[in-house]
Specification:
The protein is an alpha+beta fold and about 375 residues long. About 40% of the residues lie in helices and about 25% in strands. The protein has two domains: about 220 residues, Ribosomal Protein S5, domain 2 (2-Layer Sandwich), CATH 3.30.230; about 140 residues, GHMP kinase, C-terminal domain (Alpha-Beta Plaits). Helix 4 packs across helix 5 and helix 4 crosses helix 6.
């Protein structure tokens, strides 16, 4: 048996940092994806290869049985500190001998999902298989790489043990999303839930006060995704914004309210049909939000450079994600005289550039004989 699973990445269109304070945010799927290939075999082991992390691990079935952790709550085994400690300190598995932090987290998430789902739905039985994961998404750049990875693994484990159908009914996607959210806790501590939701369902998601308010099918909004290649620490950036808010509460609250208004206006525009008018307004909102995010201190000189280059070519740009580096998105105009190649060439002198689309499908499953 061979199962192929794909899940998209994500970009935050509007609402960065404001969402931390209960304001609205919009996340949109990308047509850059994580891919997982699962193949059954006869050996008594589970093998996982993470190509973009240059890591391959083999686990004997009996070793995996040693990782029986806390009981599931309803349909889900919570990602607890107890579970994390048991995995990381397991002598049987001989883990974490020189791996990078990204490799350690990825393997921990795999073991949590694979053992947790097998224990919950397959009577604790582990079926031998090979799992290969590869991704078009950059790690740590705000593209939802961890959520896309978690969604692919959750789907693979749930399909493999027969808990969900490969057709992915609404209730199947709901279960995938719940497991992926728990996995995101291992990566991020206290995730908002917006990344795993977008990577599961695709399209666009309006998120407010810690919950999904509305989802929207969305396809083929052309953008450039530009990676500054500047690493950033989300926790530090969020802490700095909090400090600024405590120092200047009225000003920062007003900026957060303005970002909230931009997110809601953008959402209403996305639901309309007039493409040309839609794109013009989306451009204007993106420029406004770029400057507001600079006001709260999450910009970066390279993000400003991308904005200036985009503006020179009559395009709008803003950061996506935590800021302080990471990625920017450039909204491309629907203009026959516009040359995206010229813009890409100028950007490529200093940055990595992807010519992609916002929107599209969420997690998908294909069976091969």
């Amino acid at each position: 048996m061979k199962i192929e699973i794909t899940s998209p990445g994500k970009a935050i269109l509007h609402g960065e940092h404001a969402v931390v304070y209960g304001k609205a945010a919009i996340a949109v799927s990308l047509n850059l994806k994580t891919s997982l290939l699962l193949m059954s075999h006869d050996e008594e082991k589970v093998v996982i290869e993470l190509k973009n992390l240059a890591l391959k691990k083999e686990f004997d079935i009996n070793e995996l049985n040693a990782l029986s952790c806390s009981e599931s709550v309803g349909d889900i085994l919570p990602a607890t500190d107890e579970m994390f400690k048991k995995i990381s300190e397991s002598n049987e598995l001989n883990l974490f001998q020189g791996e990078t932090e990204s490799q350690k987290l990825a393997i921990t998430v795999f073991l949590y999902l694979w053992t947790g789902i097998s224990k919950s739905y397959n009577a604790g039985s582990f079926t031998p298989c090979n799992i290969t994961v590869d991704s078009e998404l950059s790690i740590g750049s705000g593209m939802g790489s961890s959520a896309s990875f978690s969604v692919c693994l959750s789907t693979a484990a749930l399909v493999h043990c027969g808990r969900i159908t490969p057709h992915l009914l609404p209730e199947d996607k709901q279960l995938i999303n719940k497991w992926a959210y728990e996995a995101e806790k291992i990566f991020h501590g206290k995730p908002s839930g917006i990344d795993n939701t977008v990577c599961t369902y695709g399209g666009a998601v309006l998120f407010e006060n810690g919950a999904v308010v509305e989802m929207l099918e969305l396809y083929d909004i052309p953008i450039l995704l530009v990676d500054t290649k500047v690493p950033r620490n989300t926790k530090v950036l969020v802490t700095n914004v909090k400090a600024k808010k405590e120092k200047y509460p009225q000003i920062i609250v007003s900026i957060m309210d303005a970002i909230d208004a931009i997110s809601k206006e953008c959402w209403s525009i996305l639901k309309k049909n007039s493409t040309l008018e839609k794109m013009e307004k989306l451009q204007e909102l993106m420029i406004m939000n770029h400057h507001l995010l600079n006001c709260i201190g999450v910009g970066h000189k390279d993000l400003s450079k991308i904005h200036d280059i985009a503006e020179k070519h009559c395009c709008a740009s803003k950061l996506t994600g935590a800021g302080g580096g990471g990625c920017a998105i450039i909204l491309l105009p629907l203009n026959e005289n516009f040359s995206v190649d010229v813009l890409k060439q100028e950007l490529s002198q200093d940055f990595s550039v992807w010519d992609i689309c916002l929107g599209g499908s969420g997690v998908e499953v294909k069976f091969h004989n």
